[in-house]
Amino acid sequence: MPYVIAEPCIGVKDTACVNACPVDCIHPRGDETAFADAAQLYIDPVECIDCGACLPVCPVSAIFAESDLPDRWTQFANINAEHYAKASR
């Protein structure tokens, strides 16, 4: 079950999770052109290896295992996946 970045990341985009990820599945990185326009960071559900390295470093507790997403943020699983679906088109 992949991890998902939810609403608390919107407008914050702290990149500690990006730096902690061993498989580089969280984007956009701070040095990518898409960073400025992105509302939040996103985890690629296909590339995520479910290691949980991103959880303890998120300063706003925006990262959840998909199965643990609070009901009010379940749509963020699709938001994260859709971000990567658009990028691959």
Q: What brief labels describe this structure?
A:
89 residues; alpha+beta; Alpha-Beta Plaits; two-stranded antiparallel sheet; 2 helices; 4 strands; globular
Number of helices: 2
Structural class: alpha+beta
CATH class: Alpha Beta
Q: Approximately what portion of the residues adopt beta-strand conformation?
A: 5-15%
User: Any guess at the CATH architecture?
Assistant: 2-Layer Sandwich
Q: What series of H and E elements makes up the topology?
A: EHEEEH
CATH fold-level label: Alpha-Beta Plaits
Account of the protein in words:
This protein has helices spanning 16-20, 75-87; strands at residues 3-5, 26-27, 42-43, 63-65. It is α+β, with helices and mostly antiparallel strands and 89 residues long. The strands form 2 sheets. The chain has a two-stranded antiparallel sheet. Strands 2-3 form a two-stranded antiparallel ribbon. The mean pLDDT is 94.
Structure summarized in a few sentences:
With 89 residues, this protein is of the alpha+beta class. The chain has 2 helices and 4 strands. It has helices at 16-20, 75-87, and strands spanning 3-5, 26-27, 42-43, 63-65.
